[in-house]
């Protein structure tokens, strides 16, 4: 019986965390709006889990945690893709400047290029230093420490907006439940280092703060959601369908065909291929 429970727990650990973002993905696709969800969440999860993969090469902790990392990386790239697809172009120019605009690039390909460079650097360092136990343990602390900061960008984004609009409560519930489950799993199963336990406890603490924000900002959140729902009813305000429609309207252009051409051009500029549709059929 304990063997069956162990298998179920292992499957839950591997599949559960990546699936926690499925509802956020579906919500963004339905609303054609990714504002309110921090792109830094995808950065933290992708880079932390890539580092954890190299940590596994040196430490060989439980295989289920390696599988979890690989699935999470794929899930986050899917989420990042739709976040870029449905984020207004002006967002990228209105944000505070970072060094090299890190993780605020409008083209999806830029993220893939950075990831490739990140993997090459990690590979070179691992080949040189893998026999040094301190380096291997440091990889573990970096990977799990970075992942432990996962909720912090969302915590900051909520604080700045005084609202949690755009951030799915299902994701918060999945974080809180998942981090509780992970912490218990790390505490009561063998072969899990101190890194897992400390970082799991920190992550759960930040989840609790996010829950507190949800309660404190509930009135402003309801107001923001109502305003966004109203905006989505008007073409040229929100969604990838009208990435250029609003700017063309400002310049005096109001031809539907021009709107369609502008939309496709903007999507291509970001590295996406705009879907083709019959002429005269309006996008919803």
Automatic annotation (TrEMBL):
GO annotation, biological process? phospholipid translocation; retrograde transport, endosome to Golgi
Q: Where is this region: Disordered?
A: 248-284
Q: Which residues cross the membrane?
A: 65-87, 108-128, 134-157, 169-188
Topology relative to the membrane: Multi-pass membrane protein
Q: Which keywords does this Swiss-Prot/TrEMBL entry list? A: Membrane, Transmembrane, Transmembrane helix
Write out the annotated subcellular location.
Membrane
What is the predominant subcellular site recorded for this chain?
Answer: membrane
Q: Where is this chain compositionally biased, Acidic residues type?
A: 253-265
Q: Pfam families in the record, alphabetically?
A: PQ-loop
- Might you report a single GO cellular component term? trans-Golgi network
Q: What is this protein called?
A: PQ-loop repeat-containing protein 1
Q: Which organism is it from?
A: Rhodotorula paludigena
Q: Top-down, what is the taxonomic lineage of the species of origin? A: Eukaryota, Fungi, Dikarya, Basidiomycota, Pucciniomycotina
């Amino acid at each position: 019986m304990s063997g069956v429970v162990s298998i179920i727990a292992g499957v839950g650990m591997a599949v559960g965390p990546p699936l926690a973002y499925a509802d956020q993905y579906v919500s963004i696709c339905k609303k054609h709006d990714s504002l309110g969800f921090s792109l830094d969440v995808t950065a933290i999860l992708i880079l932390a889990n890539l580092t954890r993969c190299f940590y596994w090469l040196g430490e060989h902790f439980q295989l289920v945690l390696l599988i979890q990392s690989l699935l999470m990386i794929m899930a986050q790239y899917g989420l990042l893709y739709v976040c870029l697809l449905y984020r207004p172009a002006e967002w990228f120019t209105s944000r505070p400047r970072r060094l090299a605009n890190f993780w605020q690039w409008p083209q999806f390909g830029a993220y893939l290029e950075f990831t490739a460079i990140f993997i090459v650097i990690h590979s070179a360092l691992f080949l040189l230093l893998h026999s040094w136990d301190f380096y291997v343990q440091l990889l573990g602390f970096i990977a799990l420490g970075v992942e432990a900061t996962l909720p912090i960008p969302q915590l900051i984004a909520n604080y700045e907006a005084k609202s949690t609009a755009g951030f799915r409560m299902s994701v918060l519930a999945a974080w809180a439940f998942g981090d509780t489950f992970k912490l218990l799993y790390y505490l009561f199963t063998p072969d899990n280092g101190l890194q897992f336990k400390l970082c799991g406890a920190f992550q759960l603490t930040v989840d609790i703060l996010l829950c507190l924000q949800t309660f404190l900002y509930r009135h402003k959140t309801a107001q923001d959601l109502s305003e966004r729902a109203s905006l989505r009813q008007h073409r040229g305000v929100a969604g990838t369908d009208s990435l250029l429609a609003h700017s063309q309207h400002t310049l005096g252009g109001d031809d539907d065909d021009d709107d369609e051409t502008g939309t496709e051009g903007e999507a291509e500029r970001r590295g996406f291929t705009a879907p083709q549709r019959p002429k005269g059929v309006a996008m919803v």
